[in-house]
Specification:
It is a single chain. The protein has about 80 residues and is mainly alpha-helical. The chain has one domain. The protein is about 55% helix and about 5% strand. It is built from 4 helices and 2 strands, in the order ααααββ. Strands 1-2 form a two-stranded antiparallel sheet. Helix 2 packs across helix 3. The chain is globular. It starts with a helix and ends with a strand.
Length: about 80
């Protein structure tokens, strides 16, 4: 996990990112109609809302930013178990 964490922006506290941001984003994904296929626009909006509500740092989430890339590239649906890994 160290290499993955090193790719995050310096302003991100890794513990906060894992325990707050990722957890909240996954809770959101679990509540959408089709969690295995969240449209990019909705994912970005949800991530930005989570960031704005849980962080005191200013950061704009876009598809090109590290936060988006790490979250969307990190969790993949295992279609055999229907569990994100």
């Amino acid at each position: 996990m160290k290499a993955w964490s090193e790719e995050l922006p310096n302003l991100v506290n890794t513990k906060w990112f894992w325990h707050t941001f990722i957890t909240t984003h996954m809770a959101y994904v679990g509540q959408v109609r089709e969690p295995w296929d969240v449209p990019t626009k909705l994912a970005v909006e949800a991530m930005q809302n989570i960031w704005d509500g849980a962080s005191s740092q200013d950061y704009e989430i876009m598809t090109s930013t590290a936060i988006y890339q790490k979250v969307r590239g990190r969790f993949v649906l295992n279609h055999e178990t229907n569990i994100y890994i």
